[in-house]
Structures are given as structure tokens and as C-alpha cells.
Design brief:
Layout (H helix, E strand, L loop, with lengths): L1 H13 L4 E4 L2 H11 L7 E5 L5 H8 L3 E5 L13 H4 L4 E7 L8 H10 L9 H6 L3 E5 L7 E2 L2 E2 L6 E5 L12 E5 L7 H12 L7 H4 L20 H12 L1 H19 L5 E2 L3 E2 L2 E2 L5 E4 L5 H13 L15 H5 L8 H8 L1 E4 L7 H19 L8
Parallel strand pairs: 2-3, 2-4, 4-5, 5-8
Antiparallel strand pairs: 1-9, 6-7, 6-12, 8-9, 10-13, 11-12, 13-14
Helix pairs in contact: 1-9, 2-3, 2-7, 10-14, 11-14
Length: 378
């Protein structure tokens, strides 16, 4: 009952007809690909600048991973080159809402519409779209808005994460929603997700526990990736206070920006006239440096008691993707974004004083490593 209630609350929060809660965003993306009938012989496009889950799910269903470089000086895929990457084999685009900032979905939809004539559907569900299907890896972006729409109302399918480090957490968990205006049969879709996430079993545990209702069927060999009631209970409490947490994250990012931009540092822009991020991660670039000094700065921050991170190492730098034939030389923009990026701590238990301490420590760490207080202007 808790999981079903959490699904209703997620759908209402997002503005979607239904939500399905699962045990991860990875499961949400993979099951979406399965239900869409995407598999061997198909291609799915995603960004080279992301966590592995955005791409590994493509391999899991047997489709070909097509990685896009980012645009110059951008964490987002190069939309100007997206249309040319779409072939008759392309069935979907997995867009990555990095750090909580939604992608330029206007540009993505323009690209898939431009190439509508080459789309080759292999089933009725794909044919109902008549173009490559847009899936959002919104693991970071619950609560973000774009052109007045909530994340979950823009992509055809949107997948969220409730992992332990996410803005809303169920310790482990995820969810998928879909748009109401796509002519989709929401009841049918929901049933498919239920079947795929519980071994293809025709009844869930609660239904089987009813008196005299033990019998069930396995309609196909599915997976085991449903969300448990205990974890959904955490999510219900988290979601009830999330609007306040979003506001606090916006204030925190404002402090970071106010302190760091005058120093010549280049943070991801989380808020604009027609969009607002969920404020999940604070990514900042230090112009004029490369990997080695960046890593030294992170170590210097560690000596001051501050744990920093890097989001992300582009996929072609990782062993699994090198073995698939990807070469970082083909993704120069993604590498340039990665080479001088540092992710600063950002969570709602931090005080304003904590934020100021992080900023001062970064200033001193840059000076310690580079011998100057301001980064080179890029």
C-alpha cells in the first residue's frame, strides 16, 4: 500500500497520469526500453558526459550505444549534431538532465521531428510515436522546471532516482512517468511495468495473500526490481517536505555563485528566466587548468576537511566503453568539460557558514596549487 501511495504522490507532484516505483532509475530506464520493444539491431543515442547507467541500459537490451559529444563549453550533448546522428535504426534518445538542470528539449524534439521520415517502427507502440522516442535520465532532476513544465511532463518517458544521495531518497529506488498527451494507454503501460518488475508474475504479493487467491501465472520471464513498501514509506516523508528543500538548495547555490563567479570560476547555471534546476549538484569549472592541477585542488580541499567530487568522467575514458570501441579523442568537448570540473558539497544540512568555508577553502586551494588566487580567464 505504501508503494502505491508513493506512486500516486509522485504522479501528482510531477503532473503525470501514472508513476511506477522501482528499485532504481537504472531499472526504470531499462524496463522502459524493454516495454518499447527496443533491442538487437536498434540504436539508442545518449550523451558521453554522464554516469554509466544512461548507456549501460542500452547494452542490457542488446541495442547499440551511440554516444554524442557535448557542445563546446556545455555539459549537454551537441544538439546541433543530434539530427545527423539519427539513423533508420535509431529508436530512442536518452537525454541526461545533469546536476538537476533539464536539457534543451526543444532542440531534441526538433532533431527527432527533422528525422521523422527515416524512423522505422518495429511494433505498434513505436509506431504510435512515429519518431525516435525521447527518454529523460532525470536521476538528478525531480522538481526541476523547463518552460513552465515540471520534469516529467516534457520527455516522452522520464526516469527518476531516489538513491541515497539524491534530493529525495528512499535509500535505493527510482520511478518512471510518461506524458499524458501522447495517446498512451496508461493502464496498459502500468501493467507492463508491474509485470516486468516482478518476474512477469500475474499477481503481486499482496494480491496473492488474499484468502483463496494463491494461484498466479508467469506470463514471461521478467525481472525483480520492484520498490518495497518500507522504502516507499521513506519516500512519502521526503516528498512531503521537498518544496522547502528545493528552495533551500536554490539559496545555497546562490551563495556559491555569489562567492565564486567573481573569482573567475565558471559554475553550471542552475536557474534562468524559463528554467529552474532541482539544484542537485554544484558543478564548477576552473578555467585554464587540466586534470592534474584539478586533482591536486581536490586533494588540497580534502586536507581542509572538504570532500569534493567530479561529475563525470566521460564514458569513453572508462574501460567498459573503451572495449566497445569508443575513443576519448572523438569526444574533445566532453573531455574539456571534465578536465577542469570540480563538484562541491551541496546538501541541505549545510549551513551558510559551511558554504562560505567551502568557498574560502577553494580559493586557498587554488592559490596553493596554482600560485594565484584567480583562475585564468578562459
Amino acid at each position: 500500500p505504501r508503494t502505491k501511495e508513493f506512486e500516486k504522490r509522485i504522479a501528482a507532484f510531477v503532473g503525470a497520469p501514472r508513476a511506477v516505483c522501482l528499485n532504481s532509475a537504472t531499472a526504470a530506464m531499462e524496463l522502459t526500453l524493454h516495454i518499447l520493444g527496443i533491442g538487437p539491431g536498434d540504436e539508442v543515442i545518449t550523451s558521453a558526459y554522464t554516469y554509466t547507467a544512461s548507456a549501460s541500459v542500452i547494452a542490457h537490451v542488446g541495442a547499440k550505444i551511440v554516444l554524442m559529444d557535448t557542445a563546446p563549453d556545455s555539459f549537454e550533448m551537441d544538439y546541433a549534431r543530434l539530427a545527423e546522428a539519427i539513423t533508420p535504426r535509431t529508436k530512442a534518445i536518452i537525454a541526461v538532465d545533469l546536476a538537476g538542470k533539464m536539457c534543451d528539449y526543444d532542440a531534441i524534439y526538433r532533431a527527432v521531428e527533422e528525422r521523422r521520415d527515416v524512423f522505422q517502427a518495429s511494433n505498434k507502440l513505436q509506431a504510435s510515436f512515429g519518431r525516435a522516442i525521447v527518454i529523460a535520465d532525470a536521476a538528478h532532476a525531480l522538481g526541476a522546471t523547463w518552460h513552465g513544465l515540471r520534469c516529467g511532463q516534457v520527455a516522452d518517458f522520464t526516469c527518476f532516482s531516489f538513491h541515497a544521495v539524491k534530493n529525495v531518497t528512499t535509500a535505493e529506488g527510482g520511478a518512471v512517468v510518461w506524458r499524458e498527451d501522447r495517446g498512451l494507454d496508461s493502464d496498459w503501460l502500468y501493467k507492463q511495468f508491474m509485470l516486468y518488475s516482478l518476474h512477469g508474475q500475474s499477481k503481486d504479493a499482496l494480491a496473492k495473500s488474499e484468502k483463496g487467491a494463491w494461484e498466479y501465472d508467469i506470463v514471461f520471464p521478467g525481472f525483480k526490481c520492484n520498490m518495497t513498501d518500507i522504502l516507499a514509506g521513506f519516500g512519502l516523508i521526503q516528498l512531503s517536505r521537498y518544496e522547502g528543500l528545493l528552495a533551500r538548495r536554490r539559496d545555497m547555490i546562490g551563495i556559491y555563485d555569489q562567492q565564486l563567479i567573481p573569482l573567475g570560476m565558471e559554475p553550471l547555471k542552475h536557474y534562468g528566466d524559463d528554467y529552474a534546476s532541482s539544484g542537485h549538484l554544484y558543478l564548477v569549472r576552473i578555467p585554464g587548468i587540466g586534470e592534474s592541477p584539478r586533482n591536486q585542488i581536490i586533494k588540497a580541499m580534502g586536507h581542509r576537511g572538504i570532500a569534493c567530487n567530479v561529475h563525470y568522467k566521460p564514458l569513453p575514458l572508462l574501460t567498459a566503453y573503451r572495449k566497445l570501441g569508443f575513443d576519448i579523442k572523438d569526444f574533445p568537448n566532453a573531455f574539456a568539460m571534465y578536465a577542469n570540473e570540480i563538484t562541491l558539497p551541496l546538501h541541505t544540512l549545510m549551513s551558510d557558514d559551511d558554504l562560505y568555508y567551502v568557498c574560502q577553502s577553494l580559493k586557498f586551494s587554488v592559490y596553493e596549487v596554482l600560485g594565484r588566487t584567480q583562475p585564468a580567464q578562459g
